[in-house]
Every structure is written in structure tokens, then in C-alpha cells.
Amino acid sequence: MEMWTIVMISLVLTLQIDKIAAKLEVPPEVPRPPQITTQSASTVYAVEESLLELKCEADGQPKVDQDGYIWKKDGESLDLTAGDIVQSENSGNITFSGTDLLKEEELRHYEGIYQCFASNGIGTAVTGNIAVKVAATPSPNRQDKDLSAVEGASLTVPCDHEGLEGITVSWDFEGTKPDERRVGQAADGSLVFSNVIAEDDGLEFWCQIKKRVSRRSADGPHYTLNVDRSNPVTSRGPDIVSPVNRIANPVEVLLGDDLVLECTATGSPTPIINWEVMNGDWPQGRYKIEDFGRKVTITNLTYVDGKTYQCTASNDVESVSSGVRVTVKSRPFFSLESQKPLDVIQVPGKSVNITCDPSGLPKPTTKWLVNGVPIEETPTMENRKVTSNWIKLKNLKKEDSAVYQCIASNPYGTVIEQAYVNVLTSPPIPLSSNADNYKSVERSTVKMNCSFFGSSPPKVTCSKGGVDISSMDRFSIVKHKQTKQLKIEGVTRDDAGLYTCVAVNEYGNSSIDFTLDVLKPTSIKIVGPDSVIKGNTVSFRAVVKAESAADEVVWYRSEVPKGRGETFTISDADYSDSGTYKVSVSTKYDKSWGYVTLTVKDRPSPPERFNFSTNKDSKLDVNFNWTPGAENNDEITEYKIEFEEDNFEPGTWQVLRDSINPSLRSTSEVLSPYVNYKFRLLARNSVGWSDPSAETRRYSTPEGAPKNPTGVRGEGTSPNNMIITWSRVRGIDQNGPGLEYLVSYRKAGNGSSAWNTAPVEDPLTSYTVENTEPYKPYEIIVQSKNDFDVADVPEMVRGYSGEDVPLVTPNNVKVKTFDEAPRHVLVSWEAVDPTLVRGRFLGYKIFYGMSSDNEADEKVVECKPNVTETYVSNLFPNTQYWFSVAVYNRMYTGNKSEKKIVTTPEGAPGRPTSLTLKRRNATSLFLTWNKPKENWGKVVMYVVTYGPPKDPENEITENTGEQKFTVKNLNPDTYYNIRVKARSRQGMGEEEVLQTRTLRSGIPSTVPFSLDPGSTTTNITWISSPDKPDFMPANSFYVKYVDGNGNENQTPPKDVEDGDKQSITIEGLEPDTEYKFVLVLVNGAGPTEIHSTASTEEAAVTSGSFATEIWFIVLMCLLGVVIILLLVVCFVRKGKGGKYSVAEKEGRLFDAESQPMTKEETGEYKSVYLKF
């Protein structure tokens, strides 16, 4: 009992500490006495080779420092400075050094009752008593022992555990374990053989003792059982080993504990154990019977469980019983929060009450402590009144702050409750976070924290948009435990926004802000069928619309979960799956439900007790009757009766009657003669036809007159015959043997002409009339006859002989065209004489085609016989056609009329061809196209329409007279639809469509370019559209060039031309000069410059060029004149024959050579002169 008392104190103290932490919500900066937050259990076991540690932690303001903790053992203070006890720096936790090295006996020095005191100058909190005990270790007792027992006798083998506490006992066996119904463990741990059997001979077994705290175990003696089979006990009545009858001396158990009742009995054969409550019923849901009836456990005992429980052991010999009377007591406890001491904060001058009114059986006694000191040992206070169950403090002063402990005790335990009285003043301090954001769903209730601490307690009001809403409809400030909340009921969208709550007391005020977002409620739509055919699979899908993610989706049937997730599937559906299903969708802010009803249905079950009876007056009249089968969750919509006969189509079931009203349970039918019937019935619902009912007996009808054939007709296959045909009479309609057909015919219009009759044996179904005139009417009768009788004369049918080629051609054929409708013409003709068509006049055929076409490609329009004009449509404008008309019957078309040639008026042009994107960039597209292939009208302009796909409102239309167009001012990296139409004077033609995309925005890409310099020119060539996916083209370009002297020039801008290769030639350059060239590429995004350097070539000097100089021409002319003069002088001298002085001559020559040349005589002509 002591052990359980200690454990319960631990549980109660631990629970109480948790509750203390939640009593008052106080800001950490507010001064307050300490509270114990953590302590060791009420019993701590010292285990060999393990450190012994005791826990004590407290919270307060100021914080409890290391010196604020005091430990006592058995009422005496522990010296925490001696060194053998180590205290944690930030708490009162202590560790006993060296205990991990001590054995069991050495640890007994530490046994005792410990208690921790925590002080911070305002008050002292104490823990409950902590009992330190040494965890005894089982002593191994491994020895071999022999046991002897007589076959059929009982045997009890004890397990000696030396009275150790906190142990478990189990039994192990070598080899096969005996039947647990016959061999079981008693409440004291003994192994009990209800009866020993021969197979137990040599059985080896032993008990194992395990300490629950140290988890160490030891084996007891190992027993070997020897069975004496010389004088077996054959039968023996039950003997209850435990429990001993305790009716007079009741067993005391404690409220809230578990009660375990064990009944062990011996006997042969093995007794059957049963427990019963003698004066009441078993507690519903709190009891369990196990171990073959030997063990009953009742959990969480209540006072009403104090009853008498009886165990009965029975076998074939007799029954015996033993009872246990149980009384329920209880440890001290507080059934209501208001019965225990509660923390209180109060301002000076006020009064407080501290209550301690515990419950228990017997009634507990109470004892008061203040700061861990018995109240009677503290100084007397005039403002304090003390009773056993309450303390009242009046006219509080700050020094009255303290921690009060109430100790409640009875013979079954002790519980300590403590609370502080904190006397202080404080302005309001927010306990809730500022700027919190709350979310709630429309039509729900939301609570938003607006807690403040203050002493005295502050008054709290809340507002929205400057308006006080604290007491408005749907708004209120509520208290939940120690927390104040702004509560809004029936939340609407208008409630979203910023809220401000203000707290005021006599020492100040404070406020907090928070916001509320209002979400739409979660909605659920269940998609799926409301029915399924048995055996099939059906799925439902929950389509959830929520402004927050769905945390959980659960499907229920009859409130039992069946699946999770947005999809729920039922495989192999059965009738038991029919019913209503609920899907629950939970989000962080709300929970919604959806419902769907499923019906599992199938084809109807076969009708039952289907039979028939005959009519006395007519053997062909029968009455059918039946009982419906199960509908299988789908209403029957009709019945049908089928029959099978064994003469004409044996084994084939045919319909006798269908579409029988589902409300009928009987019906009458007239059968055919000369048939050997048997019948069956089927039912139908929306799923399908049922399996057939059981088949009836066979029934044969007598012979009768046959039925006449149906489908009689007369038609010719050539102008000189008529073939009479009919449908063969079914076997069951022949109504007797020897069926044949009597075929009669005569020319129509002459009622006095004789009938021609010919017999035709079944199964033939045709007769040919030869040598007829083309397309003449005949009257026809086909009558059935069998060996028993002749059928009634049927109705007469009109037929015709074969058709021939028409003898007439339509005249006066005309074709009219329409300028306003160039694709239509009106063809007219004169009506013909129908008698000349020589067949059934079906009407007229209009043949037509284009004059350029092969006549085999002609087209035909058919008209009824009463029509003499019709429109021919879908012609091409501005095209020559021919037309002719002919009549036709079912077999032949007559001769065509003479062709009429017409040309349709000019119309809208055809579709432009080869619409091509030649060039594009980020803001423009350059397009080209060809003329329409069809020459339906002269093109006067082209219409270009462009815009984003599927956005006709933003399309732009422009006109052009050329077969090219640049679409400008587009958005970069955007798809466009471009449509081009040709227009003539008659209107707009069909469109050619191109979808493309502009490039992303960017300056032109860099391209390689080549320079081909001459002496005064340089040709620059580059590729405008390299094959690169990210290439950015240019719209235009120009070239800047600088010579060695820094002179800069620039070419005029030039548009990029069609084609990839672009070039430009720069003229007027200086020969043999280095130039810097810059190719500048331009588009809407900006320019790109590409630099290069090249030198012009040297100038070539030639005679041709030199001779063109003026000074050279003048010089040559002068030289020629001089030469001519010299020649004249020479010839004159020679002609005179005169003598002259050599010296004179030589001197003249010398003088010429020695004279200096004038400036004008220098130059190349000198050499020419000297050479001459």
C-alpha cells in the first residue's frame, strides 16, 4: 500500500504543478513569489552504478538564484557545499557524486525523505516529499531441483522473490510450453498445474524475477518434474487456490486505480473459470476478462465499483466458488478547482481568501504552511484569520506577499497544494501579441486575444475604425480562464480590418492592435454517379473550394471513416454499399461537409412461378401468370415472353410478346397453329434484362390456315418483264404442312381482263412475267395455301413492268447570270410529256462543268418532275461554264439538251498564296505573298489584319497595293495572327492566315562582316539573319568611317533588304590609307556597333593616265614643232651644197651641250631630246 500511496502523490503533485503554471498569466517582468515548475517523482530509486539525481526547479520574479534553493532530508538541511552534493547552476537540481560507483548496500545511506525549498525574497515554494529508496536487485538462485507429482494431481510451484517491491514474475520452459488453460500463474507468482498429465514427465521450467526500476533480472531454481503414473488420479473436483474467500474481510482499493482479480483453480479435468458480480453489473467499457477467465481487470475505479465479485470453478465433478468483497477508498484530491488554493494578485488595502477543501475517503485533514513553515510557527498577523479549510487576509500590505501551502492527508496518501498571494500595483501590461493577424470564416465565431495584466485588474474596451464595439450586437469581451478575448459571432465580410483594444486602471493604460481577415466558407461539390451496377467500381471526387488549404478530407459512412483524400473509390460494389456517404473537409479555419447517396443496383432477378393455362374454347388462347423477382434496387420497366419451337428453328428463342406493363402479373396471348411451344419470361430495368425464368412445359397447337406473305411487289429488270416478289411466310405462320403460293396478275385499268394464276412452292419467293410492254401497270395478288386450308384473299398490289430509255429531251434551256451573285446561275427549261419518259418519272438532271474541264468531271443537280427552273450554286466567278438538261427515270437518263455556254461575272478574288514571314524583330514583321491562284476578279488592293490570337477587339486592319507589308508597332515576344485578303471591285476574297511571334526586345545581335577595299572604295558585306535561335535582327544600318587624320564620315541609313546577305559600297576614299570602319545596326531597341580596320590600295601609275595631263600634251606639241624645224633646216642646207666650217659646226654643237638648261627645259623631255 505504501508504494501505491507514494506513486499517487507523485502523480497528483505533477498534475498540480502543471495546473499552477496555468493559473495566472503574468508578464515576466512583474514581481511574484516563486512557483515549483519541476520536481522529482514522489519516489526515486537509487540504482546500483547509476547517479542519483533529484530535481527542483522554480519560476518567479526575481528569479530564484542558486542560493535560493534549500534541500532537507528527513527534516534536516543538507549541506550543499560539502562537495559530495553538486547543485546545478541555474536550478535546485542536485546530483549525489559517486553514487554511480556504489553497490546496493552502500546506497542505503541515501535513503530518506527529501524536500526542496525555493525562495526569491517575496516568498518560498516547496516541493512535495520525495522518498529515496534503494532499488533492490533480485538475487540469483540458479540451482537444479527435482519435483515429483502424481498423474492427475495438482501441483503448485512457488517463486521466491524475497518480498521485493516493483518486480514482475514470469515462467520459462525448456521445449514445448504446456497448455496455458491447464498450467497458469497465480497472483503471488506461483506456477499452478491444475492437473499433472503424463506428458509433463521430464518438463523443465524456472521462474524469472525482473526488477522494473533497474531492469535487472535473476532466475530462480530450475525444476525438473517427475510424474508418478503408478496410481493416477482420474477425476477430482475443483479447488480454488486463489482468491481466498474475502467476503467477511473486504479488500480495500483506491479510487482511480485499476483492480485486478485473479482466480486460480486446480482439478481434473481442468476447471472452467467464470467471474460474476454478485450485487450489480460489470462497469461498461472499463472491464476486461482474459487468461481463460482467470483474470479480470477493472480500470479507473469509481466508488460504485465497491461490490462483491465471485469466481466459480467448474468441471465434470462439481463446481466451487470463492468471493471477494471490494471497498473503494480514495487518497486526498480536489474535485473542483475552487476547492484548492489559487494564486492571487491584489493591490494593497484589499482582502483575499485562500481555500483548501480537499475530498477523499476518509475525509482528509489539512495543515497550512507559509513559505514552507508551519503557519503556527510564523509570527501572528492581525489581518490574517486561519481555519482548517481557508485563510482570510484583510487590509493587504506589500510585505504580506507569500506562498501558502496546504497539506491534505488521510491514511491513503498526502497531497500538497500551494498558491501565492502577490500584493503589488501595476499599470496595464499587454499579454497578447501586438499586430497579430487572425483569420476566420464567414458566419463563424472568432475569438481574438486582448489580455492585459494589471493590478488592479484593468478594464478592457475594443474599437474598430474609432467606434467602440465592446458591447455592440455580435461583439463582446469574454474571459476564457485567465485570458480575455474579443468575441465576434456570425462573422461577416465587413468585420475584416484593424481592431484596437485598450486597457485602463488607476495606474495607467495600454493598448494592442490586431487585424482580422474574413475568408469565404469552404464549399464542397461531390462529383460522381448516384448509382452503380453491382460488381463495378465507383469513384467520388470532392471538389473543394477554400481560401485556405484543406488539412484533411475524410469520407464517412454511418459516421465510420471509410477513406481519406479528395477521391473515394468503392471497388466491386455490393448492395451493402448502398447508402449515404459524407465527406468532411477540414481547413485551418473551418470544417464543411458534403453528402452523396449511392444506390448499388443490378439486373432484376428472374421472375418466379411462371406458367400458363389454356382456354377451353380455343386451344390457341393461353393465359400466362407469374410472380416478380427481386428488383435489385432498380424498378422493373417491362416484361417480355419468349418462346422456342422444335420444328422450324429449334433452339432459337423468339419474342412472343414484349413491352408488357410492369404492373401486370398475368396476360393472355393467341398462339399460332401447328407449333410445339415452350415459354419463358424475362424482366427488364435500366441495367438490363434479367436472366430468364424457368422454362414451361411443351405445348402443341392444332393445324390451321396459313398466313399470307408480306412485302409483295412487282418490278421489271428490263423493258419486257416484271418480277413479282414477296417475303417468305415464317415457319410458325405456315400453320400446317405443304405450303405453296398462288401468284395472280393482270393488266391494270381493265377490270374485266382475266387473272393469270401460277402456283409457286415454298420456299421460292418470286415469279417472272415475260413479254411485257415497257413500264405498264399490273394488278398482283399472292395467296398462301397449305394441306389444311387456303388463306384469306389478300389485298391487291400494283406493280410495273421494266423501264426503258426516255424518248424526250427538255427544250428551250436558258442560263441566267447575276452580277451581284457571281457564284450562282438560274437554269430554266420547258416541261416534258411524262408519258415519253417510259418509266417512273423521277425528274430532271442539270449537267454542268467548266469549259476547260474534262467532261468526265461534270457535276449534276437533280430536280423533281414538277420543277422547270433551279439555281446552281458554288460556281467560280469569272469562269466559263457549260450547262445541259435531261430527264431520268429509275433505270435510265435521257439524252442531254444542247450545251449552253456562259461566263460567270467577276467576283471577289481568291486567297493570296505563299504568305511568308521574310523578316522579323521585336516590334515589326515583314511579310510577302503572291497573287491568288484563282483569277476570280482583278485585285485592286490587299487587306492586312493583325492582332493577338482570340482577341478580335484589338485587331488592326491596314491596306496595301503591294504584295508585301511591314507590320509595325508590335509588342516584343508576343504571338500574332496575321490575315491577308485580296479585294476586287466585287468584294473581299478568302483570307490566308499566318501565326507567328515577335522576337524578344533587344538591340541587334553582333554579326561578322567582311571588307573588300580598293584604292578609293571599300565594299562591306554582312549576313542579316544568321541561323541562331536568339538572334536579334536589325531594321536598318549605316557605316561610320574614320581616316588616319581623324576625319569622320558616315553613310546615309539604309533599310535591311530582303534576303540574308546585305552590302554597301563606300566611295571617295584616299588610296593607301588606313580607315576605321564601324557597321551600325539599328532596330527599335537601339543600335549595335561592330568595329573593323582596313587600308585602301596604292594608286597605279600608267602611260594612259600620264598622257592625259595637259602640260604633257603641250610639251609634246612644242617638241614636234622643234623637230620639224630642224628637219627643214637640214634639208635646206643639204640642198644648197654649201661649205661650212667644221669648227663652226663643232663649236655650235659644243655650245649647245655646254649651255646650261633653263628651268623650262628640265623634265623627261630632256632624255627624249638627248636620245634624238
UniProtKB/TrEMBL annotation:
The chain crosses the membrane at residues 1110-1132. It comes from the Eukaryota. Pfam families: fn3, I-set, ig, Ig_3. Residues 690-720 are annotated as: Disordered. Residues 606-704, 705-804, 809-907, 911-1002, 1003-1099 form the Fibronectin type-III domain. The keyword Cell cycle does not apply. Residues 34-127, 138-228, 238-327, 332-422, 427-517, 521-599 form the Ig-like domain. Keywords: Disulfide bond, Immunoglobulin domain, Membrane, Repeat, Signal, Transmembrane, Transmembrane helix. Residues 1-22 form the signal peptide. PANTHER family: CONTACTIN, PROTEIN SIDEKICK. This is Uncharacterized protein.
